[in-house]
Design brief:
alpha+beta, outer membrane lipoprotein receptor (LolB), chain A, 11-stranded antiparallel β-sheet, 8-stranded antiparallel β-sheet, 10 helices, 32% helix, 28% strand
Length: 473
């Protein structure tokens, strides 16, 4: 390279090539280059390098400084090269991806929150159980019809619940007993009553039912009865004008346990007595010198011909008996009869796969044994009914998913023919209907889930709402 005068031009050669010199200095450098081959060669070399850099920049190198630095750092760099301590920073692809991810996350959370809010808003309210006391009374009457040796009583009570016109209340004259009474053991009394329950004969007849109204009078109804041995019974309830109000077919379920209650004294008639034109044996239960119940069973067949029940003062509160009876080969069809209840005999097995709603279905309540049940998980709401009996008293326990109206916790009704208790137990309504004393009702309630107000958690609301949205979708 040239010495001496060239030294004062070397630092300007690069600027000369870039065209950044002032006009006056550019003329001075140009004059020197015209006579200096060494500096001229240096300018050519600088021009070649700039030309190559320009080519690379146009085809590969990003235009902006931030883009260049990103390219140098690489897309997997932990931090862009131009980032410096402190707030802020120039944009980068990595930063943009983070921002997009954050925005997507926020959007997803917003969608999820919206879905939860909507689920809570559309969550179905618990079903209100319509008139649970009436429902319990009807279920009791249907069950009494299906398991009692006096099916006519249950049929009449059910018709009464459903509005049958039986006219004005009437008086009732108890059957008189002129024959002497002989003491018998509890076991013998139970055997005689069990024989009546097991009697399976074909017959036709008309029974009369009297139910006390609590004021010394009785609601009455006639029930035409047709039974076919091994098949079942057909009952027709007549109103006050003798017109058919309703009929029912009751299949034989073979579940009629009879136990003579403890604490009573039992007697039987020394000779037969006449009932419905047939010879009958009278069985009587007494408590503290007063009659509790009387039964007249046919001496030849064991068929129950008449029965009376008494209150604590020794007054008749329920009576049923045949006005006319014919034991023959009965025949009938069930086309015009509605099967009002489909009971299943309770299995003695400990397995309770049939038990719906309750954690366990008690085998015994209030001294009565579980004899039959009916359940339905296909209806809305699902329900379960348990029938308990000792052959004298009958209790029906009901479980129904839902809530009582008006935020009620308990409902109670007492009448001459039965007592009904209803209460809320969490997400279900429990009911007990029984023709028994208040103390027995308390025993039954103690064996069942306790009273507990309904409470639906947020989680349950969300689950219910999402399930509903899924079904709608």
């Amino acid at each position: 390279m040239a010495k001496g005068p060239c030294e004062k031009f070397l630092r300007d050669l690069s600027a000369y090539v870039d065209g950044t010199l002032s006009p006056k200095r550019w003329e001075q450098v140009s004059y020197h280059l015209a006579g200096c081959s060494g500096c001229n060669a240096e300018v050519q070399a600088i021009s070649d390098v700039c030309s190559k850099l320009s080519t690379c920049r146009s085809s590969q190198t990003p235009e902006s400084l931030a883009a260049r630095l990103e390219s140098i750092a690489g897309e997997h760099a932990a931090t862009p090269l131009y980032m410096t301590p402190g707030e802020g920073g120039l944009p980068s692809q990595r930063r943009r991806r983070v921002q997009l991810a954050c925005q997507s996350g926020v959007a997803l959370i917003a969608v999820m929150v919206s879905a939860v809010v909507i689920a809570v808003l559309v969550a179905p309210s618990p079903l209100k159980v319509a008139d649970p006391v009436k429902a319990a009374r009807e279920q009791y009457s249907r069950s009494l019809t299906a398991i009692s040796v006096n099916e006519a009583v249950g049929a009449m009570l059910l018709a009464n619940e459903r509005g049958a016109d039986f006219g004005a209340s009437e008086s009732y004259l108890p059957l008189t007993s002129e024959t002497e009474s002989l003491p018998i053991t509890r076991e013998l009394a139970a055997n005689l009553l069990r024989r009546a329950a097991d009697a399976d004969y074909s017959l036709t007849g008309t029974q009369r039912v009297w139910v006390s109204d609590g004021e010394g009078r009785y609601r009455t109804a006639d029930v035409r009865t047709t039974k076919k041995a091994g098949y079942g019974a057909h009952l027709e309830v007549l109103d006050v004008r003798g017109n058919l109000f309703g009929s029912a077919f009751l299949p034989e379920i073979g579940t009629r346990p009879v136990e003579a209650p403890w604490g009573w004294e039992y007697v039987r008639s020394g000779t037969t007595e006449q009932v419905a034109g047939r010879n009958a044996v009278r069985i009587q239960a007494n408590a503290e010198g007063l009659p509790v119940a009387k039964w007249w069973v046919d001496a030849a067949t064991g068929v129950m011909l008449w029965a009376e029940r008494y209150d604590a003062l020794g007054r008749v509160n329920l009576a049923v008996g045949y006005k006319q009876l014919s034991l023959d080969e009965a025949s009938f069809t069930t086309d015009d009869g509605v099967q009002l209840i489909a009971l299943q005999p309770a299995s003695p097995s400990d397995e309770q796969t049939w038990c719906l709603g309750l954690a366990t279905c008690p085998r015994e309540v209030g001294g009565m044994t579980l004899v039959a049940y009916s359940s339905s998980d296909q209806t809305d709401p699902p329900s379960m009914n348990l029938v308990y009996s000792d052959g004298y008293h009958t209790a029906v326990v009901g479980w129904t998913a839902g809530v009582l109206g008006d935020d009620a916790l308990t409902l109670t009704e007492r009448s001459t023919d039965m007592a009904v208790d209803v209460w809320q137990s969490g997400d279900a309504v429990l009911s007990v209907a029984c023709d028994c004393a208040p103390a027995v009702m308390q025993e039954i309630a103690a064996a069942l889930p306790e009273r507990k107000a309904h409470h639906q958690s947020i989680g349950e609301k969300i689950a219910g709402g999402l399930a509903r949205l899924t079904r709608v979708g």
